[in-house]
Structures are given as structure tokens and as C-alpha cells.
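Please check these two lines:
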Amino acid sequence: APNAGGWFGWFINAEKILHDYDITLDHRSADRTTSSVTVYPHQTVRRYTSGITETFTMIDSINALLIELTAPSDAKIDLVVSPGEQFLLDSTVALPGRAWKRSASAAGVPSVLLSMPYRVRGGMVFVLSAGSSISQARRQSDSVYAHRTEFRNSRRDRMNRILERGAISTAKPTTLGKAFAWAVLQTDALIMRQNVNGVPTKGIFAGLPWFNNYWGRDSFISLAGATYVIGNFSDAREILRSYARFQETDSTSTNYGRIPNLVTVSSMQYNTADGTPWFVAGVGEYVRATNDTAFYGEMYPVIVRAIEGTLKYHTDSLLFLTHADADTWMDAVGPDGPWSPRGTRANDIQALWWKQLRVSAEIALWNHDTARARSWSMLAQQLARTFNTYFIDSVNGRIYDHLNADGTHSIQERPNELFCLQGLVSAPAMIRRVTNRMLSELVYTHGTSSLAQTDSAFTPYHHYEPYYVQDAAYHNGIVWTWLNGAAIHAATLCNYQDAVYPVTLNMVHQILDRGCVGALSELLDAHVRPGEREPRLSGTYSQAWSLAEFVRSMYEDYLGVRVDARMRKIVLQPHLPVGLSDVTFAVTTPDGMISIRYEKKGTHLLVTPISHATCVYRLVVARGDSSIVVSDVASEIIDPAHRTQARSLSVTLPAPPVRLPRLARPVLLPYLKALKGPSYPLLSVAEAGAKNPSARTLFDAQDSSGDDRGPSPGTYTYPSSVHLKPGSLDITHARIRYDAKHVYVTLVFRRLSDPGWHPEYGFQLTLAAIAIHRSAHDTAIDVGVNSKMRLAPE
């Protein structure tokens, strides 16, 4: 369909360059809504009912779009461009095409948009080029046109190379391998090179369309699935280096040692407690997978500052990492404070802090800093003991979500317990008890909920206006797709892969059949709405950590692949569900790629290396039920230099559990506060959109454009935020009418714009507040709220 959303379009360094374009045939617009569309990973092909075929291709690493059109003979084809905001048509440029220039400059953003037509046999080729000048954009456009076949093939070939590294094929179900391929490429599509303070910097967009910036926490959670588990080692290293440069190095700042949570083209924010531990863990995982031990030396000053800053500013007397209510991944804030407060010590933050200490000690040891290595190892041991004392409820088999400032426990059931099972809590019996409860209370077939539905604060739907705003629901019951990775990991630790495999199949269904082609959404509703068949997708259309955790969990949890390049060892610890019998997959090491096949033969699993590169590795296969303590069951040496390839290894499959936990089932409970609605009366959708052409006019006035300067002498500046465009608050016409039942208000603004997401509350929308006083008074009335307005008696 035509682009109707402010977030959609072509963006370069967070600025919209192009809103949309329209294809015309003999001066008549081609109707997209009736076209047939095929989406390939590298391009999109539209076939219109008018006979036009349109092939749309983005060009790798070049600010140009290639649009190739074929049409019936003798037809006149044209491309009508609607550029992004702040672009003005430059009629002074004598070109075959059209040029637009920016009315306001922005650092690192092209100032010219050029649309160039090229006639070819059977149709037209259009190149939309963005550049710093007309001449530079023209040269770029001509180059793209002249080499369009090479550019298109280069993009396709690059994607094929990615799929060679990250390929899984399954005899049953065949859809899994296809969904996996899409997820690998969609995750790669979110790895960007965006200017930060004018410097090209590699990072991962959290999600599209509106999280088109680098988010530290999201990047590090996504790092495994997006990069090194599929052999993309160079991007992993570059992303970690980028964030290391952004670390706060001022020792007098309370953010000292922190890695930023949000990196935009011009600013950084350090408002998270978990971004830094995730970063340190990522450094350790990257080096384990690559044997790039020199990176330990490069990162060591960053690692030291991270520990020093935490110990100086963010730990209490018990060594717990302390933080504010909204400093965890559950960070939504409203006008009255955080919607899901988790201060001052959340369980997942302590698990990450423990991991940070352990990895940092390993890095210190490699750097021959034995004093720090010993100190940090002892701190990790102390933290584990203290955590066991204050967070573990052994009677009920749970881990408290957080400790409040007064030391009391939070007994809310949240999925954050799952992160504590990734090393900090290691007792097998406790892992099983927690996993059983998490699966049965929080994990639905369609994903993992952020709050148990038995909690009175539970919200079943993300968008349910006007009962509550969406941020109120964000972490209070809504399903977060990325959490499925932690749930799958915990399940495979207990040999419960058959219990959680339906969650993976549901993600396959979403990738192939729902929402954005080949992608996973940020969120889903927890419950199916009345009259609908599936929970609604919500949040971003393509979310990095959702996709990356799908990829990682397939490799590390179901296939059980762990590459230890330092020890030149590949450990395989498979947890194959019943429905996954024969699997072939690639394992990429820094020394080459090895293909491996799993085949179930009754009670045995046959593991066969079927091809390999020129690298010597020890292949270790461990039984799936030995996950908590890995032990070698069978091993073989792959040595191409001596023409020896590991023979097939046969491993006895562990007996399935006598009883598997059942996943949670959505049940709408009657006492939920979220569904009671506010205390004031609400307008229905029909009432809000009611019209009456015969209504009496109360007020109808024009207002001068550009006078939004406040009361005389007009010293205010509107808007003061750079996220709102000038004119967004300038009302040029207001009309108010009424009848016996309704008041009808029409407002016209000089310029409406979508300001986009910003951390301060209220920047999500351009808002007009309308106050109606229903009583007759002979005195002036203060409107209140933030208006600073007084209505005269009349």
C-alpha cells in the first residue's frame, strides 16, 4: 500500500530522506494494493494489474535505490517522488531527472536527493541517489545504473555467503530451515554502519521501524545470534570495539565504566544497569569462539573501568549491584514513574554482575594481572553465596524477582529468573524446579510472558486504549519474543526440549506466515482477543534480539553447539525434540567451516562430520542429559592435514523425562485492574468520531501562521525539543461546534510531524488537550494541567 506512516521510508543517519514514490503508466498511478508482490531477501518484485513489473533493490553500502520497470510497449512510465521532510524541489538544476535539496542541514545526512531516469529496452530504470551535492549524487546515480547487475549480484552473493555459514536443513519439518535462513538474513539486515558524532560506527539497530538507533543492551543480547554463532566474527569484533569507545571514562561520574544503553547519531545515554555486564560477557564469548586473545589485551582497560565503576558507585554492603527502578530491561516509564519498578536489586542484574566478575577475572588472568584475577574471582564467589541467601526461596522453588530498597522481597512471577539459571544458580534440583514453574506459568505456546497472568497487575493486550496506555502493559504480561531464548535454554538444561519446542514452531510460523516477511516482532499480546484466532503481533515489526535469540537457541540449545577455538574443540551436546530427527548444519570456526549431520537411530544419535575445511579440531559429543556438567561421551579428531576425518560417533540418547511440564494456557481472570478502566467516563470509538453538519458553531477562528511565540511580547520558542518539527504546535484554525449531546472540535496545525520515540515521557505524540467546563460561571476559569491558561467568563 502507499506509505502512510511517519516511521516508514528511506532513512540515513536517523533522518528521513524519502517518504515514498509512485509509479505511473500513461500519467495514471499504478495501484499497489492490487499488485502481486514477491519478497526476496535481496530485492522485491511487484507485478501490477496494468502490466508494469517493478523490481526494487537497495544497494549495499551506497546511498542509492535501484528501481527497474518494465511495461507494455509504447506506454509512458514515470516515477513520482515524495521526498522526506525538509527537502525542497530545486527547479534551477537542468537534469533529465529531478533534484531536491535539504532546507536544513544535519550532520552526516546527505543534503541532496536526486531522481534520475534511464531509458532501457522495454521499460525504464530509475536511480534515487542521496549525496552531499548534485554532482556527487549524479556520479553515484550513473555508477549504480551502469553497474546495476554487478551491484544486484553482489548483494545476493553476500547473502548467500551468510547462509552458507548459518545454514540448517531438516528432513522434518522443512519449514524450520527456511525460517532459520530468513532469521539469519533479517538479523544481518539490522547490523548497520551509522554515523555517531560524525564517525561511521558499526552497531545493531534494536528494531525497525522506530528503534533505528544503537541500543547497548539489545546489541549485546543479539550479538551471539547475529554474529559469531554463524561465523560473522569481524562484525562481532567491530561492534564490541564501537561500544568500548563509548564507555564513560570520567571517574567522577556515577556512570563511570558504563557502556551506554542508547547511542544516537548525536548523543548517548547510560541509563541501564545491565548493558555493561552484557558487554563484558560478549567479549568473553567472542574470544572463546574466535581465539582472538589479543582482543583481551585491547579490551582490558575497558574491563577494569567497568568493574571499578560498579564497585565505586553501584554496589551495596552485600556486594549486590544496585540500580534505579527502571534501569533493567523492564524500563518503561510513565508520568508517575516506572510501570514495572524493579529497584533496587533485580535478580537478572545480579546474575549478569556475577558473570561480569567471572569473565573479567579470566581476562585479567590472560593479561597476567593475577591480583585482580584473584580479587574478582573471590568477589564472584562471595556474590554467589550472598545471592543464595537473599534471593533463593528453596521452599517454593523460586528466585525472588528483586529486593526492594528496604530489603523486602518481590514475589511477582516474572521471567527474569530464567537468566539466573545461566550459571549463577547451578544446583540441578533448583534449576528443574524453577524451570518447571516458569514453563507452566509464564511460557505460552506463542511465547514468554513478562508477568504471570495470576498477578492483579497483569495486562493481556499491549494496545488496549483507552483502558491503559501501551507502556503500562509493556512489561506487565505482554509476550516478549526474545525471552523465548532463555526459556528454551532452561528447558534444554532439564531435557524438557519437547515441552518448549512448540514455542519454536510458533516462531517459525510467525517468520514465514505473519507480520513482516521473514522477521520476528518485538511483542505479542499475551491473550487472543475475542473473535480472533491468534494473539496480535505488536511492537516493532523486525526486532534484533527476537531474531538473534531464535538463531542462537537453535545452535546452542537444540543442536548444542559450542565452539572453543582456544582449545580447538567443538562440543556437541544436542537436545533434539521428538519432531526434529535428521538435521544437517554448518559450524564455522575461525579456521574454517565444518558440516555436521545428526541422525536419530532408535535410541541412538549418529553424529557425522560430512565436510570440513583445512582445520584440526577435536569433536566432542556429550549426552543431552549431562548439560549441567559436560562430560565427554565420544570424541574424535578431525585432521585434514593427515587426511583423517572424524568417523561417525554414536551416542545413546537420554531417556525422556517421565513427565514433561505443560506450557501455560491463557486464562482471563476477572479481577485484573487493567480491564476495569479508568474512573472517568470514556468515549467510545463511535462517539469520538461522531459528526453532525448541523451542529451550532460556538467558536470559529483563523490564526496567523508562525506566531507560536506565546503571549505578548512573544518570547517563547516552540517547540523546544529537536524531536518536534517547527510548526508542530502552531494552530492556524480552530472550530468548535456543539449539539445537545456532543462538542465537535476541529484543529488545523501549520505542520504536523511524527516526533518519534524519545525517553522523556510525552514525546511519542503531538498532543492537543481540550478542556470543557460544563457549568456556567461568571468568573474566569483556570484550565490547569500544564496549560497556564485562563478562560474569560464568556
Residues 370-390 form the longest helix (21 residues).
